[in-house]
Amino acid sequence: MIRVKNIVLIIGVVLVNLSGAFSQKKAEMINTRWANNVVVADGSLSDWPDSLTMFNEATNLYYSLANDDKNVYLALRSASKQDLTKILAGGISFSANIEGKKKDPATVIFPVLDRTPGKSRNTKDQPEVEEMQKQILSRIKDIKVAGFKEIIDGGISLQNTYGIRAAAGFDKNNNLIQEIIIPLSLLNLSTANAGEVTYSIKVNGLQGASVNMNQRQTAQRQPMGGMYGGQFPPRNSAMNKLLTSTEFYIRSRLATKQ
């Protein structure tokens, strides 16, 4: 009995330490810029004059953050072909939270690919990259949300009435571009609030049952798996990277109009 109690105690200590390790992830302090121009979620960076100069090495994402008195705006660009597969498999989660106020902050997950099987095609005939990109974008039909007080967790339309907007596209170098817009009111934020905001950006990767062999074989015939080479990486270190989510945190205060 004593040995059992000791084991339980040890496990408890380990879990507490792990919990502390995850909660102590450092967040980089950045400056959020004021959105002087109108930002439209269209999968293009034409609204972003800084060309996404900030970079996170863990996720291989270039990014920029802006706000006005109504919305917070996030733009992302991924230049890694392997990470493109990972992004399309599980999307990117973006959350905003006033420091220490909420355990599960309001989160937008995008892009979300429609998994409804399409018409089968001859896998020996690889479509052109541009055509493959069109197929990928055509499968993005909604936005996933979680933790919003006013919205039920799950999928919402790209043209929802909540004011949340998201879009994806590809630039001339075949890099995936994403834009996400969230109304400040849905985040209980305001430019009058001088509090510090913690943002989380997480590349989710392959989730749960989606990693089993049958679905992996199906994915080889779908745009997300065939974008570059027609299939997922084999079950090795590259596959392990696809299974592991990567996340980083940034801290900032909402910008105010000068």
From TrEMBL:
Top-level taxon in the UniProt lineage: Bacteria
- Protein name according to UniProt: Uncharacterized protein
Organism annotation? Daejeonella lutea
